[in-house]
């Protein structure tokens, strides 16, 4: 396979130029990401409000969380975000093989993230920590507010994992298309989505694992 | 600095900042720990937005759409912050033996 740029794609009927079409995609993506940010900010606001009510319970909850696994996942997402940014650069320069490899590596790191996340959930379940304050953990640790901490944890990280799953699927599909030379459009939209997922985790990590 | 090199440097800076957050979590900063951790997180988010998403190089229409979202976020956070600060303290837990259920 050669390292040449793909052919310029045709525009859809309702766009005069390719630039106009790309700008429209970008605006739509900005609006979509803004709405996603609102969704996650609503959850962040909930966390802040409950943490101010029950700081000790949140402190206990963080103390029982899987800090090392969560921190490894932070590294995984930061590296993946770097790789997909490099993939966009490689595609701009017409280096198709490199762009495809970096995109697929990003998707692979997305899978690694999800495997680690599932490992964390399995550990929580074995410790008797279930959403809604169910499980023997809450009988052994009856602090008021602790069930709320863990419910918010499952809500926020579960929703984020769903986004990682979608992003991983999109990047894997795009990566294969880049390799095959059948992706005629930029990787930018998928990369922007992945960076957004990264930013959400950048804030979830200190709130649920570090503070 | 080339695009690839600046992105690699940015990625290294992100990892270094994450390591700093991790190390500070053992420093027992008390109530300041969450503030410090979120400050570092905000700095990391700015690096991702500026260097990886290249928001500064986007067209005005893209920035305007993001700005509208940012203003809505700020409004939401302002209302939540004022609510948390001004409302009455939460009721004490009932004197039951069973643990309270969450949301």
Straight-line distance between termini of chain A = 49 Å
Number of helices of chain B: 3
Shape, principal axes of CA atoms of chain B = flat
First-to-last CA distance of chain B: 50 Å
Based on helices, strands and strand pairing, what is the structural class of chain A? Answer: mainly alpha
Describe this structure in words.
Chain A is mostly helical and 211 residues long. Chain A has one domain (18-210): Four Helix Bundle (Hemerythrin (Met), subunit A) (Up-down Bundle). Chain A has helices at 18-53, 55-63, 67-92, 96-126, 137-140, 146-180, 188-210. The radius of gyration of chain A is 20 Å and the shape is elongated. In chain B, helix 1 packs antiparallel against helix 2. Chain B folds into 2 domains: 1-53; 58-87. At the A-B interface, helix 1, helix 3, helix 6 and helix 7 of A face helix 1, helix 2 and helix 3 of B.
Helix-strand blueprint:
The complex is a heterodimer of chains A (211) and B (103).
Chain A: H1 18-53, H2 55-63, H3 67-92, H4 96-126, H5 137-140, H6 146-180, H7 188-210
Chain B: H1 3-24, H2 32-52, H3 60-86
Helix pairs in contact in B: 1-2
Summarize the structure.
The complex is a heterodimer of chains A (211) and B (103). Chain A has 211 residues and is mostly helical.
Q: What brief labels describe this structure?
A:
heterodimer, A: 211 residues, mainly alpha, Four Helix Bundle (Hemerythrin (Met), subunit A), 78% helix, elongated, B: 103 residues, 2 domains, 3 helices, 68% helix, flat
